[in-house]
Design goal:
Blueprint (H helix, E strand, L loop, with lengths): L3 H14 L1 E3 L8 H11 L10 E6 L8 E5 L5 E3 L4 E6 L9 H4 L3 H25 L1 H4 L10 H7 L10 H10 L10 H12 L4 E4 L30 E6 L8 H14 L5 E6 L24
Parallel strand pairs: 2-5, 7-8
Antiparallel strand pairs: 1-4, 3-5, 6-7
Amino acid sequence: MVDSGNMRGARQTERRSRKVIVPELTGMRLRDAQIVSVQAGFATADGQPNVQVRYVEAYADDFQVVAQVPLRGQLVDSAAPIELQVARKSWTRFLPQLYSMANEENALLQQFLWMFQQIHDKTAHTIDRVPELLRPLSTDAHYLPWLASWLALHLETDWSETQKRQWLRVAPALYNQRGTKHSLATLLRMYLGFDAEIRENVWPFEPFRVGVASEIGVSSTILPPLNLAHCFVVHLPVPVGHFTNEQIVRIHRVILAEKPAHTMYYLTFAEAEAEDDATPFLTIGDDAPSAES
């Protein structure tokens, strides 16, 4: 059996070690340059831009990229970050003139303040993006579990980013229909990728009557009294062998979280096709192999 975690780690290592061409980022605003860098392949394992920002005093608009290392067109390792020099007005201009003058003595003070200015700008940028971070389709990938916790939703670890975003987008809209057949069918379709058949007011077993509807040890099933008005069957049109035990547990978890508390359900699967083992061992005719061969 192959360890899926090791496979994912190998794929991530392969992705990080591939060679990519450095795009032209000079002249762009910092946010646009970060997006372009990710699209070009300079991204961390969690999908964030693999860039290093360094503020400089320059005759340009704030947050405009004035220089980059490596330069455009170079073929480099995608795991190596791109250093961006970004124009920014220094906080030293708020200090007395003695400390704001551009000289070698004040250079260390300016470099020291750049660190706090970058932290401040990063925090301010995150606050400005709060409406965007609360939208499943536009928030950053590493914010998806945090957003799901707000809505009491569970995200499976093996889901793709697209599946997680779709789940966060559709599931909350079904809250006003929670407990209905339509809501359960929609969630199962999103979870499974195909439609599940939901049969209401039925149960797969007949009432327990010895010698009439069941035989002891063969088809007898002892259950508490059932009200068919509170029962339903979820039928999946694929054999049970199509799923792992963990996936079946997840399906039950989706149904239990969505169904009304007073109802009972039964999960069924399509019958697996029997394999035909009747293969000919002797063929008589022109096409049959001779004993000499």
